[in-house]
Specification:
The protein is an alpha/beta fold. The chain folds into 2 domains: 3-49, no CATH class; 72-321, Rossmann fold (3-Layer(aba) Sandwich), CATH 3.40.50. It contains 10 helices and 14 strands. The chain has an 8-stranded mixed sheet, with helices on both faces. A two-stranded antiparallel ribbon has the order 1-2. Helix 5 (101-111) crosses helix 6 (127-134), helix 8 (171-180) runs parallel beside helix 9 and helix 9 (232-248) crosses helix 10. The protein starts with a helix and ends with a strand. The chain binds S-adenosylmethionine (SAM). S-adenosylmethionine binds at residues 95, 97-99, 122, 124-128, 142-145, 148, 170-172, 191-193, 220, 224-227.
Length: 325
């Protein structure tokens, strides 16, 4: 980094992540004055705060392959990003709720080591499966809708992504079978339907879906699809059933990660993530939550100018552990 480029950074007021304050940001100008500052490489700060030996994987780390600073960065409870549309997004966007493989990779890398196996019982068009392929993990997906299974397959073929095992079917039946076969996974990382497909939605079609690239009516008619429950209570009961099965097929001391987006229906907030966490606590220890703020999500004037109606621009990433008994 030449002096000129460093001066330019000073001028534009760039913020950088500081390991000394656990990955929170501070201005690059303060960073350059810090005793631990080492150098700038391709715009990234290289810092001496973690002694050399801490920049390696800790020998007692049985969970993942992260260095101390990467581990700490992940433990922050808010993640603010939007990811570039990559890895077959043009095909995958037909799914109403596909997740960025880069986000899933970030989560998988914390909860597994290379070559370990992740299960996603609600696999959709394969956000988790692709994320696993990107970081040399194995994955098994279960998806009830054949169209999504076919899209996943096509994405892998057209983008040269390693194809993981994707099973077409109802995850309750398939996880039951896995349990009978004593099959166990190193992590379960999943993104189930967030609610029953009730007719009324937040904006009830009022603002259209102009900025969405998918067809919101695009759900299966299969009665075993969790979206086809007719009340939140029935939906929570199915999630509890799934939770019990996930507990049976997860290795001890390993983690279940579930992404849930709360919703707002019939004039009230529905804290689905809270209700699901309460039910899953019957089996698992609830370890925490990460909020994924999807920057760039559109904001609409729902309650304006009369009452508070939230623009829900985040997903809750719920983290549970199966304790060793
Ligand atoms: C929120 S989406 C998952 C999207 C996925 N993360 C992706 O990146 O494409 C939830 C998925 O669960 C599937 N699903 C619903 N009920 C199911 C069931 N009983 N068994 C398996 N999959 C189910 C739906 O078809 C839907 O694709």
């Amino acid at each position: 980094m030449t002096q000129n480029r460093t001066e330019k950074f000073f001028k534009v007021g760039v913020n950088v992540e500081c390991p000394k304050v656990y990955g929170n940001t501070l201005s690059l100008s303060s960073c350059l004055k810090c005793d631990f500052f080492k150098t700038l490489e391709k715009g990234k700060v290289i810092c001496n705060f973690f002694p050399e030996e801490e920049n390696k994987i800790h020998p007692k780390n049985k969970l993942n392959e992260l260095m101390g600073n990467e581990w700490l960065f992940f433990t922050k409870t808010v993640l603010r990003t939007s990811y570039p549309s990559e890895y077959g997004h043009t095909l995958r966007k037909k799914h109403y709720a596909n997740k960025p493989p880069q986000l899933m990779k970030h989560i998988i890398e914390f909860f597994t080591k290379s070559e370990q196996t992740v299960l996603d019982p609600f696999a959709g068009v394969g956000g988790t499966l692709i994320g696993a392929s990107l970081c040399n993990r194995n994955a098994v997906g279960i998806e009830i809708n054949q169209e999504w299974v076919e899209i996943y397959s096509k994405v892998c073929e057209t983008h040269g992504i390693k194809k993981q095992e994707m099973i077409l079917g109802d995850c309750l039946e398939i996880m039951e079978r896995f349990s009978d076969e004593a099959k166990e996974f190193d992590a379960i990382i999943t993104d189930p339907p967030y609610s029953p497909a009730l007719e009324k939605t937040l904006c009830d079609g009022k603002y259209g879906w102009a900025r969405r690239h998918s067809n919101f009516e695009n759900f299966s008619e299969n009665p075993k699809d969790f979206r086809n429950t007719t009340s939140f209570d029935d939906y929570y009961k199915l999630m509890e059933k799934a939770g019990k099965l996930m507990f049976q097929i997860l290795k001890p001391e390993k983690y279940l990660v579930i992404m849930i987006r709360d919703s707002y229906q019939a004039k009230q907030y529905i804290p689905a993530s809270f209700h699901i966490a309460t039910r899953l606590e019957k089996f698992f220890t609830f370890k925490g939550i990460k909020i994924w703020h999807q920057t760039g999500a559109p904001v609409r004037p729902y309650g304006y100018p009369f009452s508070f109606v939230p623009n829900i621009v985040h997903h809750n990433i719920l983290i549970f552990k199966k304790e060793k008994f």
